[in-house]
Design goal:
Strand order of the largest sheet: 1-4
GO cellular component, one term: plasma membrane
Keywords: Cell membrane, Membrane, Transmembrane, Transmembrane helix
Pfam family, one: RDD
Helix content: 40-55%
Membrane topology: Multi-pass membrane protein
Number of strands: 4
Largest sheet: 2 strands, antiparallel
Structural class: mainly alpha
InterPro entries: Pra-immunoreactive (IPR051791), RDD (IPR010432)
């Protein structure tokens, strides 16, 4: 026969006694693995062709929407001042569409349709993963800056070892060629020795 042992009630604090802190031990922090993004990196020609393909997609969608809106507005009799305001609004929408296109694709998969066609990917240097939306927006602003400087921001690709343009340097990204082996490898963290 087995005897049952009644459960032991939890210890009650002694009235008037100071609380006792339990000693806890913490494990030493474990170093995170280091992500190293190795080549091959996308060059100027590949990136230019990918950008041209993206420009075609952006413009075809923009022209299609503009044609529909223009057709609908042609049915109405609007004063020229209203048409001018609508034109400015349309230009603003086109800019938002273009920025959203790049930011969306860079922050989700790291590949726009043009990048996918050319088999390249935008990744963060530190992690090797697609960039966050805020960084994608900053990269988009850097892209405009690269173009405003008579395209000299793009020419940095020819002289940088990792083929980074000005906007890549500003946003902490690289454009990796994914047609070859995966460009990302993880290096185990150094082991800590106990003394």
């Amino acid at each position: 026969m087995s005897a049952t042992v009644p459960p032991v009630p939890p210890a009650q604090p002694v009235p008037g006694a100071a609380p006792v802190a339990l000693a806890t031990t913490r494990a030493p922090p474990v170093a995170e693995p280091v992500v190293v993004v190795t080549g091959p990196y996308a060059g100027l020609a590949t990136r230019t062709l990918a950008f041209a393909a993206d420009a075609i997609v952006i413009n075809v969608v923009g022209w299609f929407v503009a044609a529909i809106v223009t057709l609908c507005l042609s049915l109405l009799s609007l004063p020229s001042s209203v048409k001018d305001v609508l034109l400015v609004i349309g230009a603003g929408i086109a800019l938002v569409w273009t920025a959203s296109y790049f930011c969306f694709f860079w922050s989700t998969t790291g590949q726009t349709p043009g990048n996918r066609l050319m088999r390249i990917r935008v990744v963060e240097v530190a992690t090797g993963q697609p960039i966050k939306p805020r960084r994608a927006f900053g990269r988009m602003l850097g892209l405009v800056l690269s173009a405003l400087l008579l395209c000299t921001g793009f020419l940095l690709i020819l002289f940088d070892g990792r083929r980074r343009a000005l906007h890549d340097r500003l946003s902490g990204t690289i454009v990796a060629d994914v047609a070859a082996e995966p460009p990302i490898r993880t290096v185990a963290p150094p082991r800590r020795t106990r003394r």
